[in-house]
């Protein structure tokens, strides 16, 4: 129990930092006179750099006998905290602030797979922890802090976000250091960062291998197009949610509540999905979630009040929260065993590409045409994604899709 409590605290502090630094990024940068297109560039560059940083750090760890996963997490959290602290003093210099934000978010994105890997390695050492509960506690922490930050920003201004982020990164360092020092120290061993490059080994990452994989899995390749379009729409809403909230008459307080609703509803939905895949084809669940990404975007576009925005956020249950576990099960069934890592990596790459596209074009659309046009483009992207997804998704039987109980 004490290890589950510790690991839950680590997940809680990480996702809380994720909330204060990323979820409120637009709120913070808009207050510093950034245009929406500039915010999009900051978010896109951070995502792209993280794709390369994850496998780089993993490679360094694999070549060193002295580096542990614990040490990697502490170093990365400390570095992100230092960038957040610098934001407190240099927020008035726009180019410097943009650079600091890009660097902080790059490290923040790259930290996640190492934190997940730490949990797996604790389990592999024979120490029982409830990984699902710990990850769920992270989502719950995200939800609660989102609501609190919306209120705090109204009371104390956006500069409070940098201070809170520093405190959360520091707390994460403390938790990892205190428990790892007294209880265990995990050698990093072979660390696989959960990114496109990190999951493809040197042999399979060459262009010929990638093209060969796609040519032998044409429908799966089409599904990746669908996923990219869907997550372009999804990320447009997430990245520019403060602009959408203000468009219907809300403030950062209402934005925090709406984000909290979506985050809080993810845990029961993801837990339900484990049950559903034993009763319903995971390919059907995947199609269902793609449709509801579109429905959610349509309701967000049609929203004329904060309450309608809240209603749209409830649909996170039927869209994102079901898509994530269902997509993992689906890949495990339709891709050959020797190509599973590539399959999961392409799924990650598709969502990342959609997020980068949303960051760049969403900001440009906001500056040139406004919230309505951006959301209309999001609806079109989500609808195309659902249509292509229906064609590309292969039928998977329930008995094949059900997860192996020995792996849960």
UniProtKB/TrEMBL annotation:
Which key words tag this protein in UniProt?
Cell inner membrane, Cell membrane, Membrane, Transmembrane, Transmembrane helix, Transport
> What InterPro entries does the record point to?
MFS_assoc_dom, MFS_dom, MFS_trans_sf
Q: Topology with regard to the membrane? A: Multi-pass membrane protein
**Matching Gene3D superfamilies, A to Z?**
MFS general substrate transporter like domains
Q: Where is it predominantly found? A: membrane
Note the PROSITE patterns from the entry.
Answer: MFS (PS50850)
Sequence intervals crossing the membrane: 12-31, 37-60, 67-86, 92-115, 136-154, 160-179, 220-237, 257-277, 284-304, 310-331, 343-365, 371-392
**Gene Ontology MF, one:** lactose:proton symporter activity
Which Gene Ontology cellular component annotation is one that this UniProt entry carries?
plasma membrane
Q: Where is the Major facilitator superfamily (MFS) profile domain?
A: 219-408
| Cell compartments where the protein resides | Cell inner membrane
What name has this protein been given in UniProt? MFS transporter
Whose protein is this, by species? Caproicibacter fermentans
């Amino acid at each position: 129990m004490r290890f589950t409590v510790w690991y839950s605290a680590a997940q809680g502090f990480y996702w809380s930092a994720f909330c204060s630094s990323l979820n409120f990024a637009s709120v913070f940068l808009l207050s510093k006179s950034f245009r929406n297109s500039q915010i999009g560039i900051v978010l896109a560059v951070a995502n792209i750099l993280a794709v390369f940083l994850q496998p780089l750090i993993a490679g360094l760890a694999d070549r060193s006998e002295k580096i542990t996963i614990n040490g990697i997490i502490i170093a990365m959290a400390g570095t992100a905290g230092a960038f957040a602290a610098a934001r407190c003093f240099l927020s008035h210099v726009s180019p410097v602030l943009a650079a600091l934000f890009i660097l902080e978010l790059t490290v923040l994105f790259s930290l996640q797979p190492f934190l997940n890997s730490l949990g797996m390695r604790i389990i592999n050492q024979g120490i029982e922890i409830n990984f699902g509960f710990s990850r769920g506690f992270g989502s719950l922490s995200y939800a609660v802090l989102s609501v609190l930050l919306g209120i705090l920003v109204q009371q104390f201004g956006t500069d409070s976000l940098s201070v809170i982020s520093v405190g959360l990164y520091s707390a994460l360092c403390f938790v990892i250091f205190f428990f790892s020092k007294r209880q265990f120290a995990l050698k990093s061993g072979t660390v696989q960062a959960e990114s496109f490059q990190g999951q493809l080994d040197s042999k399979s990452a060459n262009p010929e291998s990638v093209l060969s994989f796609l040519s032998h899995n044409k429908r799966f390749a089409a599904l990746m197009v669908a996923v990219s379009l869907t997550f372009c729409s999804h990320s447009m809403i997430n990245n520019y949610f403060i602009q959408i909230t203000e468009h219907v008459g809300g403030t950062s307080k209402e934005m925090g509540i709406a984000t909290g609703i979506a985050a809080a509803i993810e845990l029961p939905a993801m837990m339900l999905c484990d049950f559903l895949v034993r009763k319903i084809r995971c390919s059907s669940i995947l199609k269902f979630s793609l449709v509801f990404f579109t429905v959610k975007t349509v309701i967000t576009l049609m929203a004329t009040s904060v309450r309608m925005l809240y209603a749209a956020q409830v649909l996170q249950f039927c869209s994102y929260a079901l898509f994530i576990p269902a997509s993992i099960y689906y890949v495990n069934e339709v891709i050959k065993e020797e190509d599973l890592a590539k399959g999961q990596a392409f799924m990650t790459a598709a969502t990342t590409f959609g997020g980068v596209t949303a960051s760049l074009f969403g900001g440009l659309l906001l500056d040139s045409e406004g919230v309505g046009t951006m959301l209309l483009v999001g609806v079109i992207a989500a609808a195309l994604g659902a249509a292509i997804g229906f064609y590309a998704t292969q039928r998977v039987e329930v008995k094949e899709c059900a997860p192996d109980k020995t792996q849960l």
